[in-house]
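so the lab meeting is tmrw and i was supposed to have these ready like two days ago... anyway. pasting both below. for each one the top line is the aa sequence and the line under it is the structure tokens. i havent really looked at them closely yet so no promises
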Amino acid sequence: MLLFLCRLGRLRQLDSELRDEQTQVLANVNALAETQQTTLPVYGTLCHYLLHLGPTPLATLRTRMIRTRIRGKVLDAYRLQGAFVLAVDGTGPVSFSRRHCDHGLTQTHGERIHYYHQVLEAKLVTWSGLALSVASEFIDNRHLSQATAASAEARKQDCELKAFVRLAAYLKKQYPQTPLCIAGDALNACGPVLQICTQNHWHFVLTFKEGRLPAVWREFQTRLTACPEQVHVIQPQEGLTVEYRWVNDLSYQDDQRRRHRFHAVQCQIHQGDNHQFFAWITDCRLTPQNVERLTQQGGRQRWTIENAGFNTQKNGGYELEHVYGHDENLLQSFCLLLQIAHLIWQLVEHGSLLRRVARQAGQSLLGWYGSIRNLARRLLECLRFYRLPAEAFEAVRLQIRLDSS
């Protein structure tokens, strides 16, 4: 965990930064873990341990962390229509030029075959910039080994939509009573995803594009002209105009002959010569009172998984795309550890403790520490050169609030 919390970037850094016997790292780790070890393990031993541990206990740990936040009502300020917004999207952490395991995905470019692993992430996103990992479904070809005599569809490679079915089952099992709102890209605007959301009583706000549901898109555009009164225009600042137009009660029949009913909205943003266009479908009936919130805190909020989520994990010192091992279970374990560490850092960054310290110094959080990466460097320096005192572990009543501005 310290590999990602201190943003060391490479496994070998664990040996060079945390195993120096002249520092306080061993004593601090013993105090934090309530152990009495005489040495710290080399990174090879840690990999060996994770290889045998497997990813399941780490996923369970993350679930317990999220449940604690939900039950403590820490995240209630971020609900949309009473539900937590879960952005769902896939990313490709690692790729190889040659086969390294039996279940990796393949992609052919000319005469070259690339082997890679992907993961479908569900992150609880907020308008304050949080992207907390809730569940991860790894996309691989494990199912192909049992599909030799199955249909041609079963023999296809794994993909995001197949992974979403497994991800949804996991979410429903771990959070059976928690109201959720699924925010996804246009790939998810399809029958299987709509059916799952309906069965699980989940809200959804999904990106709507002409090429994904062409017949529904044509009906949407035709009915927009027939109901010109369904418009909501705001001017949040001078020179900026945002126009919402919507249609309720659209109908769609998927390839399984299941009928789905939903609503669609488009958003046009004009600022000088800059024009932007967005559209979504949702199960929530649209009105002038809720259209802005549904689109801004539901539809456009999906980008938080890209910006505050994947981009930070790839370029912010976590090194999501680094190959931490060639075994697929080891890759999954490191990916989950990274998600947990990023979750912890977000709670620290958005929490009230550091802001209180910065406020006492008369500065903002970034003005006091310089950057979030500097905080990780301060943590490393603390572990190396500062012995955590016994009174730091005494039980105290402490409430940490999240910044919801």
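ok protien two:
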Amino acid sequence: MHSRPFPIASILIVCSLTLLSVIFMAGCEKDDICGDGDTPLLIVRFYDQADPESTKTVAGIRVIGIGNGTAVSSFADRSTLDSIGIPLRLDMGATDFVFITNSEDDNGMEIGNQDTLRFTYIPSSTFVSRACGFIGQYEDLSSELTTDADNWIQSIEISTPFVQSIDSAHVKIFH
């Protein structure tokens, strides 16, 4: 019986495919899951004006972003809470909100005490990883309350002017 030698071209193809597979697998990043890739929310904590060291819940809290006309979706709408997280715009250096206490819907009309707040800041983006991409951060945070005849918000204090995580409150609101 006559045996045929394995053609050299077939050996080269198999070796080339093996080498390409190894190179492709080596180019993959081990951490393709993003755990820290979210732009942080602005954490607002509510305090008792009479006792500034004590937190105080806000009944029926609703926050509406001015310009979009809808309630923020980062917390349960019209709930009673002592802290909330709200999104800031990355495409501008300011975000305006209407903070409403005792919010109710009366045939499509908003019922409740409404205060308007403006947060100003310097937005920036930071590269986290290939899996996460870029996240937003905000520096030099400041606030401005529009005064009216019936403000439920008495004062505002910026606790952390650099918003880079949600580990602690950035803003204290006294009411």
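from a quick look at the 2nd one: The mean pLDDT is 88. Residues 42-174 form one domain. will dig more after coffe
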